[in-house]
Amino acid sequence: MQSVVVEDLCLNRPRGGFRLGPLSLHLAAGSRTALVGASGSGKTTLLRCIAGLESPQTGRIAIGERTVADGARQLVAPAARRLGVVFQDGALWPHLDAVAHLRFVRPELTRAAALEQLARVGLADRATRKPAQLSGGEAQRLALARALAADPQVLLLDEPLGAVDVHLRDGLALLVRTLAIESSLTVIVVTHDRDEALAMAEDLVVMDQGSIVEHGPAAELVRQPRRAFTARFLGRAACLPIRRDERGEARSALGPVPLPRDADVAAWSHVVLPGDLELDEPATAAALRARVLHVRFDALRGTTAVLAIDGQPVHVACGDAVRAGDELPLRVRGAPRILPATGVAEELR
Questions:
Q1: Cis-peptide, bond into residue 340, ω within 30° of zero
Q2: Three-state DSSP state, 137
Q3: I want to staple 153 with a disulfide (CB 3.0 to 4.6 A). Which of 2, 167, 225, 229 is the partner?
Q4: 221: nearest Cα among 257, 38, 212, 242
Q5: Domain's final residue, options 223, 257, 286
Q6: What pLDDT digit, counting tens, does each position of 16-33 carry?
Q7: Same-domain status, 164 and 289
């Protein structure tokens, strides 16, 4: 296993108006990290820079003790970086069967050893099949086996579950984790799906518009985000705008919020995570009221009413008797959660 260090990396594409960085990132050896964010946030571009498939204008990239890139200069070729890469579409070779895929990237691998590798990913009976003869899930398993056949120190995965049927994703995510632990790999996975990120990684790097918004343990970022963007992306939070009333007091649709009079209300959001609102039963005169848009059922989270508050969807745990169109009395649990609306706002003092 090897650490991955990115320092002051910056990449510009003037024609497309895209900019990545400047950003820095230090991933410990053996860590499993997900780069998460919306499409166009720079996740895949950062992964490609680490892999050597794209070159930034400035910045340093190190894998273990070796500096592999210094700005646009490639000091270590991609093939010599001890990386395994799984692309979103698999990027399999259509003319080769499963065994040949593994032996192509590692010619000294015997057929018996290749069959053993395929067995690790559940493809023991698919050894002679070509990509067109495999399902989407099987193709990604072959892409994973091919990446591991090269005996990498770092495994890079770009949306590895995107082409896999929904009911197969949990199994493939578990396989990635299991093999990474068994092989003592440092793992970096790109995904725009929160549940996939949490299934494959312990640490998250939240990205937006080419910048890192937050980086930390997954459980911490989901439960206690420090930016409104993180709360919305990871926690299905509502980010309510804050306004000044006629007396100059800061308020959201849920009531007063603790912002100083000189604070720019546009730079802050009243963030409402699932669980920050609960049913006010029995209803009191002070209860807030909102109408149910629809009701969701989740095997893990139970029944949830989705309400509209100031144009934002808010999730509230409810009973099975609640129906769309019902008006529910609500109360806020705890103090208002006020977070920077963007990744650049100053912390509240």
A1: no
A2: helix
A3: 2
A4: 212
A5: 223
A6: 778 998 999 999 999 999
A7: no
